[in-house]
Amino acid sequence: MPLFTKAGSFLRNIFFPNHGEADLNHEVQSHLQLLTDENIRAGMPAKEAHRAACIELGGAEQVKEQVREIQIGNWLRSVLSDFRYGFRQLRKNPGFTAVAVLTLALGIAVNATMFSLVSAFMLRHPPGRDPKRVAVVTSINPGNGFLPEANPVSIPNFLAWREANQVSADIAAADQYRSVHLTPVSQSTAGQPQAIRSAAVSPNYFSVLGVSPEFGRTFNDQEIQPGRDRVVILSHELWERQFASDASLIGRAIRLNRENYTVIGVMPSSFHLTGFTPQLWTPLEVTTQTANARKDRSLLLFARLKPGVTIEQARAEFSALARRAEQDFPEIEKGWGAAVRTFPDFLLYNFGIRNGLAVVMTTVAFVLLIACANVAGLLLARAAGRRKELAIRLALGAGGLRIIRQLLTENLLIAFLGGALGLLLAYWGIAFVRANMNFNEAMSAVPLSLDSNVLLFALAASTLCALLCGLAPALNASRTDVNNNLKEEGRSSSSSHSHSRLRTTMVTCQIALALFLLVGTGLLFRGIFMIEHQNLGFRADHLLTANVVLDAARYKDSIQQSLFVRNLLPQLTQLPGVEAVAATSDLPAAGPGAVTFRIQGQSEVPANQQLTASDNVVSSDFFPTAGIPLLRGRAFTEQDTALTPRVIVVNQEFVNRHFHDQNPLGKQIQLNVSGTASQWSEIVGVVGNVKTYSEGIIDDPQVYEPFLQRPISSFSLMLRTGSEPSALASPLRTAVAQLDAELPLGNVMSMSALIDRQKGGNPFFVRVLASFAFLALILAGIGIYGLIAYSVGQRTHEIAIRMALGAKRPDVLRMILRDGMKMTAIGAAVGLALALPLPKVFDAIFYGLHLREPRLYFLVPVTILIVALLATYIPARRASRVDPMSALHQD
To answer: Where are the domains of the chain?
Structure first.
């Protein structure tokens, strides 16, 4: 048959079935009439001739059915017929439909909501042309630590690797963690000076990534030369917020770091890199003239691979280049390696959220499984109620596969309705998650939405739910015993052992999964509670903080930086309500940078085994301002300057690890600080431990250097106040402006607010997991109730006989409760066995979070048993009130 004829027949059979059916009726009747006429001509009476014709034809309806089977498009028409029948069945049972759809909707909603995070972090491609062909090259820190393979690369290595590698068509470099001062110069930039996150990039940075500006152009090779590098490209967000989307800004000057920069471009709003939030870009000055250029690792390298080059080949190439640098410069490069990842993979690795996403998605998957088990139990009960209908269909010739297809079609309808409602709930859930992800800039910049990936996931989840919920009940129903179920007196057949075993298994699995989730959530909640209420080692109350970055235009060297701090701190102490003032390179518990060091008299160790400690540069009044106790020795004084011997203060953890019971005072330490020559420093004091991170529970070794001996351009101010710290924000800005009107202050907030902001993700994370675990517990309780209630309904005849033979109501109550508790105990035992390794798993997933809470392994099973007891008691109480005479009379 020609293709067009087939297509026409298909469309006619699908969209105009009545016409085809009319033609089929006419054709069958015509053929039957012909046979009848032949029989009449053979001498048969008309009535007998018609009967013989029907016998010869084989039955008109049977012939029609055979023709329909071979018609083009019949399979689709059959499927549509199944869906129509399924809709009618669901409409006849609105209570069952509502419960099943709502149960699946809850499971799909929480999965789709959390999958939106996976989509935003893992499935959304970075901006630019073919981002998977871009490799990000970083250094591997021999000292390990957090994200050891995401360390930046030095300028000398960038220049050497750019020339020597054979795998990239082009390599760009970017210093992503800079800050500039934006000073208002016109009506279009109103307000006070602002500290703006910026990035310095090589001219080919945007071309390597394959992105173009929305307006203007990118940098050229001449604009990296001193004097010609005063050009800037703005982010779309900064252009809208600060410059009112003024398209005429291109070619005009804005004031950055006290100098005029010409705006040459504005990037599109879609240009966002996960984890990086620069609001403008300036040309990167590449120089190797400084003495410590090789120690200063500040660049991320972006290499566009040549056609045909794989990421494994690029990884081998740059690893070889790193080994060559180690051979040529062993003192500095010893132990350092090179890591190469695709652009999307690096952004995910650098953000450090992969493990958290895995935990969340595993949790919601368990919730979905529990919901599916609940719906499967409902379907089993419904199939038991339809046993006579299914037996009749089987007796009329329907095969087992046909029954399975019909039931699975109904399950698909339930699942798709649940998926549609789940997507509506997920839309609100995603809005809620997005509103609670604003605890830092990087998280709030993540584009969280109900995108196409989430829609496809919801469709896949709905289909999977249909199979998980319906396959076992459908298989069970297809094996219906026709003879028993068609007998009028076959009442006992209703409660088949296979149905009971399957429903019991499903509910037991629900209990096990719910217990597993509750233990896991309890462990995480306990860990977060410990973090929230731990002693950080300093006084965070009544402490106002602010960030300061001294620009190179006015503060060119350490003398001017030191002079600014010397002039500012005494002025701040004069503010009303201020008790003490200090400057520090890093605020307490805010994640200071690390430094490697040597202890005089100890033998040298390999680069990958070098000693490390957190490094803080602080002013003389830092310890009393922060409330950190001095345990022995002395703190810094104004006499600890660049002209006096270098001194340091260490914390107690430093002493415990490296000096044990020895007195550390007077010991000499050599700090390998990037950008400065290594010098020996004397330990003059020991202070109490301060947490490295406010959300961590581990005490790390820490060293403190005096600000006047190593002035720095970027630091934080700390003001100890006698009243509400936020009330001093405006006086603080005024005091700084009196010294330098163009110097902005960043993140002016109380220390308590800053710590709450740092911890913002943890409470939200635990609240989400806790809500999922609670939902799992509720679903498991509903599953237990449904199973016991169904069982009681099926055993009414048995219970009536027991009571007629002398069983008392308490006996029946105990029997039903015993069955429920037995099932719960088995599920709880399985869940406990699954939950036993969780502390070790969380220790491996979450760095430094050592979770040990044995009480949970007692409290959670008790909670499960109480919920199960309550869910079992209601149907058990109903069973104990059965009237034997009424029940037996009805049977």
So the answer is: 2-72, 152-335, 354-533+761-889, 551-742
DSSP string, 651-690: EHHHHHHHTTTS--TT-EEEEE-TTS--EEEEEEEEE---
Tell me what the mean pLDDT of segment 432-445 comes to. Answer: 73
Question: Taking the CA atoms of the chain, what radius of gyration do you get in angstroms?
Answer: 37
Under a CB-based contact definition with an 8 Å cutoff, are residues 619 and 606 in contact? Answer: no
Q: What is the pLDDT of residue 490?
A: 43
DSSP 703: E
Q: With the CA atoms of 255, 257, 259 and 264 taken in that order, what torsion angle do they form, in degrees rounded to the nearest 10? A: -60
For residue 369, which of 508, 500, 476 has the smallest C-alpha distance? 508
The three-class DSSP label of residue 597 is strand
**Encoded tokens for 568:** 């500012």
Chain position carrying tokens 């839309």: 427
Residue 799 and residue 877 in contact, taking contact as beta carbons nearer than 8 Å: no
Closest by CA to 765, choosing from 549, 523, 552, is 523
* Cα–Cα dist 406/475, whole Å: 11
pLDDT at 207 over 90: yes
Alpha helices (H) in 574-674, listed in sequence order: 622-626, 652-658
- Give all strands (DSSP E) within 184-296, no chain letters: 194-201, 215-216, 231-234, 253-256, 259-266, 280-283
The string of pLDDT tens digits covering residues 484-503 is 555 544 444 444 555 567 66
Q: CB of 276 within 8 A of CB of 175? A: no
Span 766-813, pLDDT tens digits: 677 777 777 777 877 777 777 676 666 666 677 777 777 777 778 878
Place of tokens 């199939």: 383
**Are 121 and 265 contacting, i.e. CB atoms less than 8 angstroms apart?**
no
The 8-class DSSP code of residue 542 comes to: T
The answer to whether 357 and 843 have CB atoms below 8 angstroms apart is: no
Other Cβ atoms within 10 Å of 351 Cβ, number: 18
Residue pLDDT, tens place only, 568-582: 999 999 999 899 999
Closest to 446 in 3D by CA, of 345, 361, 351, 356 = 351
Beta bridge partners of 302: 136, 172
CA 497 to chain centre: 43
Q: What is the rounded distance in angstroms from the CA atom of residue 156 to the CA atom of residue 296? A: 9
Nearest Cα to 522, choosing from 289, 78, 862, 787?
862
pTM above 0.85, yes or no: no
Q: What share of the chain is helix, strand, coil (3-state, %, to 5)?
A: 55, 15, 30
Which residues pair with residue 615 across a beta bridge? 703
Long-range Cβ contacts of 831-836 (<8 Å, 24+ apart)? 831/511, 831/512, 831/513, 831/514, 831/515, 831/516, 831/519, 831/861, 831/864, 832/515, 832/519, 832/857, 832/861, 834/512, 834/516, 835/515, 835/516, 835/519, 835/520, 835/860
Tokens of 787: 């199973």
**Count of beta carbons in the 10 Å neighbourhood of residue 576:** 10
Q: Provide the 3-class DSSP secondary structure of residue 261.
A: strand
Provide the residue type at 93 as one letter.
Answer: N
Residue 760 and residue 694 in contact, taking contact as beta carbons nearer than 8 Å? no
Query: H or E element: which one contains 641?
Result: none
What are 615's two structure tokens? 């490094």
Amino acid at 624: P
User: Hey, which residues does 526 pair with through a beta bridge?
Assistant: none
DSSP character at residue 144? -
Q: Which of 195, 158, 156, 202 is nearest to 176 (CA)?
A: 202
Rounded distance, CA 144 to CA 140, Å?
A: 8
For the chain, give the longest Cα–Cα distance: 136
Burial of 501 (0-12, 13-18, 19+ CB in 10 A): exposed
Dihedral sign computed on CA atoms, order 340, 342, 343, 349: negative
How many helices and strands (H and E) does the chain possess?
A: 30, 22
Each residue of 133-145: b (16+ CB within 10 Å) or e? bbbbbbbbbbbee
pLDDT in tens, 710-757: 999 889 999 999 888 888 988 999 999 889 888 888 888 899 888 877
